[in-house]
Amino acid sequence: MIQRVSLGGLSLALLAGLSWAVASLPAAPTGLTAESLGKLPESGVTNPVTAVLLNYRGYDTLLEVGVLLLAIVGVWSLGRGEWPESDLGDRPLLMSLLRVLLPVLVLAAGYLLWIGAFAPGGAFQGGALLGGALVLMVLGGLARRVLQRDRLVRFGLALGVLVFAAVCAATTVMTGGLLQYPAGSGGTWILVVESAALVSIGLTLGLLYLGGRPRDDR
Amino acid sequence: MPDADHRIYLLAGAALFAIGFYSLLAQAHLLRRIMSLNVMGGGVFLVFIALAARTPGVIPDPVPQAMVLTGIVVSVCATGLALALADRVQAATGSVELEDDEEAGDRPVPRPDPSADRKDTHSA
Amino acid sequence: MTAAWAIASLILLPLAASALAFAFPRRGRWLALATALTTGVAVVHLTRHVITAGVQVHRAGGWGAPLGIDLRADGLGVLMLLVTSLIGLAVSLYAQSYFTAHEPDRPRETGGSGRESDPSAGEKSRSRLASAAANRPGREAEALHRERYFWPLFLFLWTALNALFLSSDVFNLYVTLELVGFAAVVLVALAGTRAAVTAAMRYLFVSFSASLFYLLGVALVYGQSATMDLPSLAATSRPGPTLFVALALMTVGLIAKAALFPLHFWLPPAHANAPAPVSALLSALVVKGSFYILLRLWFEAFPALLTPAVAQLFGLLGAAAILWGSLNALFQTRLKLLIAYSTVAQLGYLFLLFPLAAAREGGFAAWSGGLIFLGAHACAKTAMFLTAGNILHAAGHDRIEDLDGMTHVLPVSVFALGLSGMSLIGLPPSSGFAGKWLLLGAAIAQGQWWWVAVILVGSLLAAAYVVRLLAHAFTRVGEPGMPNPIPPVMEGTALALALLAVAMGFASHWLAELVRVGAPVAGAMLGGGATP
Hints:
The structure holds three protein chains of three kinds.
Chain A: H1 2-23, H2 33-38, H3 40-43, H4 48-56, H5 58-78, H6 92-115, H7 123-139, H8 144-147, H9 150-175, H10 186-210
Helix pairs in contact in A: 4-5, 5-9, 5-10, 6-7, 7-10, 9-10
Chain B: H1 3-26, H2 30-54, H3 62-93
Helix pairs in contact in B: 1-2, 2-3
Chain C: H1 3-23, H2 28-53, E1 56-60, E2 69-73, H3 75-101, H4 122-166, H5 170-189, H6 194-225, H7 230-236, H8 241-257, H9 267-273, H10 276-301, H11 308-330, H12 335-351, H13 353-357, H14 363-395, H15 406-409, H16 411-425, H17 431-446, H18 449-474, H19 488-503, H20 508-516
Antiparallel strand pairs in C: 1-2
Helix pairs in contact in C: 1-2, 1-4, 2-3, 2-4, 3-4, 3-10, 3-14, 3-19, 3-20, 4-5, 4-10, 5-6, 5-10, 6-8, 6-9, 7-10, 8-10, 9-10, 9-12, 10-12, 10-14, 11-12, 11-18, 12-14, 12-18, 14-16, 14-17, 14-19, 14-20, 16-18, 16-19, 17-18
């Protein structure tokens, strides 16, 4: 009981401190909107968030794609995943839903990837849709054979990191700066990176759902 | 937009963080603790978004938005890892709660022959 | 190699190697060694640049702060990178043999099948040996599995550490912190034992919640200053409630990750139950990463907030860590737990750097002393953990009481243990001594006598637990049966690091000059500060 009270007190103190900090924030914040919008024409995309994510602060995104790969490697190292029991023959409703939903999801993922340069969207958003599609496939028992092709899956998971790292190296060669895209070609490079990342992110999220290795390592 | 609107969101984010923190420490069940982490994360992201919305102009500040995107991805990874690890903990210990701290001295490894003439040691 | 290429290689090479090690699991050993050598070359080049041309800045994406992310290499960063390269190389070599050479890193419940001291246990041990032989294929597969996952995880950790030490952006530091934390957690769980998995779960809770504290602090910093770049923050931030709370949040998170008293509780079980090379990485590098960020925040970004009261508070927590850690280490029965508590204690010394380096004059001596101590501890602690791994492999257990006469069987390992203990205690000419000497000198010069007492008491306690450990190893009574031979590379790397920990003491002047580049303390400019 005393422990709960003191924990509650601690949390209230935390809240009080945070409220004080929040109340003291400057009244007229500028943020980095002006700078981001100002440099937008040079970035190769017209969506400011994508510009920040893959150009201005693209280095953060490189590490973030690394975190995704690390997570799936970690989950795989912990043990085998559990395949849900499923016999689609008994569940015609699920099967017909999947028949419609899966292609739509894949298409939407590709659309989000493309539209990310101009409007809200991008590799992560598309990857989330792909991941969802993969989860549905796992639940419907459709993904088992594909996901047990060890070499292919590993390569697909690593693709995002490898392509992104290769692009970083290439830009360093071309312009002398890490992730400094040569003038005018930013949009193309971003698309290349995002496409590879889309595949990896979708696979990673779907396999994270599985919660372990799809099969025993040879 | 007046500042007052955004202060609500900033405070809401702070409140979520505090609630998640309390729950992390007060709950024992592994799954609930993982959820507390997510609540804390949600609070932090809300603060970021509110900061983005405070800026004047038509387009909200894109930098905090990108940071939230990164934060969400990291949070998903952490949750995935935590869940897999919690599963392992349950498989190994049979319990969905973390055992009490064994750090102080640890349970002594059983001796090959407890009755032999060994010095009596105590675990700190 | 230009500085830009050196910086880029330090991050891209281990990252690519880890992805490749996951895609091609059988190439892990080779990839790790290749990474160790190539990044070693890059670090040496970067050091050369920093020494000759000063602080190196690389604007990722070409944008420059505050919109883009800057990567900086100064004396402090390069020192951390050098230490990381060194420990990384040692662990890469050690782990080539570690996983497959022997059985999993768990103390056997009944103390090893080689003991014949008790005749009545002979029957039991014979049948145990038989069942052990039958289980051998399963255990070998398990060991191989562990090794196959170790390499990509280890390389991820390396990437994250390099990225952390090169970063100059508080949000980027958050991402690298998370990367480091997750890699460390999974590496701890790799041991597979019940204790390891539990310790890893606890570590993950602490690590992730601490990161969230840090991230909330970053949010407040951005809300206040609209930048996340460390030098820009130093230039433009005005002390006030928001920054104070933000810094407090970040500090709490970082202190938990650095296992400073009283938030150290997760460290002993995690470091003790992890596989030996992982324990080395954790104690030597991972906890230092958070400490490094604390240094950057308090000395570079927000020096105005580093009041004497705050500095003394850090010192107080450090002193408590030294005393608590050393006392606990003294009473441990298991070797790896002793070493883990020793880490808690030694980290306390690092926090003494705050009150001593924040002073108005003579701060640089403490700054260089603390950092030399950091490097010394990294080498010595790695050597100790690797040695513990050797002993665990050879003897099947790590109970200190039952290590009698170890020196007859594993002379190289015990010698390494002795040398690293020498550095931990702070005996001349080791680098541990050099670090402590500089700290003592700074404390005396500034009239902060209480830290002198703390350092001396801490050294005495360290001597106590090291001597207790060695006393068992050097007794002539009894000879433990050692059924398992140890590959020479395992003993060799441990010994090499221990020798380095001692020999580095001779290079302490050069190290001090290295960290002088860009040091954010009073007296860093030539002509100020005391050097021995």
